[in-house]
Amino acid sequence: MAKNKNIFVCQECGYESAKWMGRCSSCGEWNTFVEEVVEKKARQFARSGDSGGKAEKLDELTFEVESRISSGLDELDRVLGGGIVRGGMVLFGGDPGIGKSTLLIQIAGIMSDRSIKVLYVSGEESAKQIKLRADRLSIGGENLYVLAETDLSVINEIVAEVKPDVLVIDSIQTVYSPNVESAPGSVSQVRETTSGLMKIAKKGEIATLIVGHVTKEGAIAGPRVLEHMVDTVLYFEGERHNTYRVLRSVKNRFGSTNEIGIFEMKEEGLVEVLNPSEVLIASRPSNTEGSMIVPSVEGSRPMLAEIQALVSHTPFGMPRRVVTGLDYNRVILMIAVLEKKAGIHLESSDIYVNIVGGISLKEPAMDLAIIAAIVSSFKEESINPKLVAVGEVGLTGEVRSVGSIDKRVKEAEKMGFEKIVVPRANLKGLEQQRGIEVIGVSNVVEALNIVMGG
Fold first, then answer.
1. pLDDT tens sequence across 144-179
2. Does 98 appear as a known binding residue?
3. Which CATH number applies to 68-274?
């Protein structure tokens, strides 16, 4: 048998090198190379498909059981595209303490109560610790099995014995394969264990939910191939000191990647927020300058969000620009448009822009509301609390049309608003609404005259 070979692998992107390098030539990160051992023996790759090596006609394929499993949480099912696909792999990422393990143990308990067999594998907690957490969240069920194990070969044996419908792995960075000599969490181990779990999921049609650690930049730790191998990648967003969490889909082979789910962290765990518009604008102060409501659409869901701006004079030569929850570069562009096209001089002012609630919304339809909030704070004049605005603003000051305008108008009407400012181009084909006045504008100056009352 040939001798083993030592190589150096970048822990950020998986790039391999025969010698150690200070900076990765693939991803550009510094001090990420770790020495790993590669076995130089012929490897037997087991078949992971279920076709038996024979091509089948698409029209002749049938399902004996329902192809999706409901998680029991409508918010999660919406993000997944209708439920968890049998044989699919879902990767959950997010900052430490954001609620990944809490969500998974919750849906494991909900599914077990509906006679769905779930195997919860943890490499970070003992079985007794999982029991303590489950008791705190009032979670139980005779169909929920718990396994504290990190060896992939042992996990494979238990899966064959229990034959679960859903497999939960918390987390992929703690699982290791005895066939690879590198430490758990390394590029080689993550790649090998993910491949092994994928074979288990596809062969047994087991829905597999995986927790992935994130780096300080917010990306899933380990090689990028991890995200390519799984079917769905979901990210938890939100501040740890804030009660609201946003679950966003960034990859989904079985649904849309634009959907989001909103949860609230309480003592009993994560609770669905069924009406985010009401929650996000409930504490909005009345007759306060610098506040503007905008109807946003994430995927198929419309919701109202409050954009706040604070403009204050600075005695220093370099004014500050601080943006939270919005695209920073987009806000800087809107400030430039205001100075050039609306004649509002902001070069000597600090500007702070924020979305209330700790959520992030990056769509261009926010532009008009951002501009209105900044001007309101600059002029120290409040905006009509019964008015909302939506529209994309171009660099020449024109207001461009946005998508899903019907949903935005209906959501504003449902929440009791009386006026909505929209791009003039969106007036064509817009359904006639009752109870709300729709005002079309074509440029920034025209919009500001309406929003600021002339």
1. 999 999 999 999 999 999 999 999 999 898 999 988
2. yes
3. 3.40.50.300
